[in-house]
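Pasting as-is:
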Amino acid sequence: MSRKKNISIKIPNGRTFQTKDNYFYGAENYRKPNVKGYYRRVVVVDSNRNNELAVVKLTMSNKGIPIKTYRQGKSKIKPFVETRDFRNKPIKRNKYFLENKSSYDFNKNEISQIKRILFKTSKNSKSNRMRVRKLKGRK
């Protein structure tokens, strides 16, 4: 793969991670009651050369936007791009964000559908685009 593109070589778009909600910026004090372990699944929608990730949370609630082709349409996304962890550092693969098996990955069509939702049709499309631009080091 060429190094000209500003994307991670180690972590492809579509890879899923396990984490907790309180590991995201702004949710440090959040504790989900009666739940142990890593319960929140997130999917990588973009990255940069330093393996810093832009992720989207997956949910099972009715408020999410369904991705019909992934896991028989049971998984839905929350239309917010997250790029910072609870320490206000870029999200990376570490002890707070554990990588899932590749069998849980999203394919390219599903990722392009998610990006279309995030950057064009959601209410927060402008802030989502700005977060990814900042992650990539663009103005």
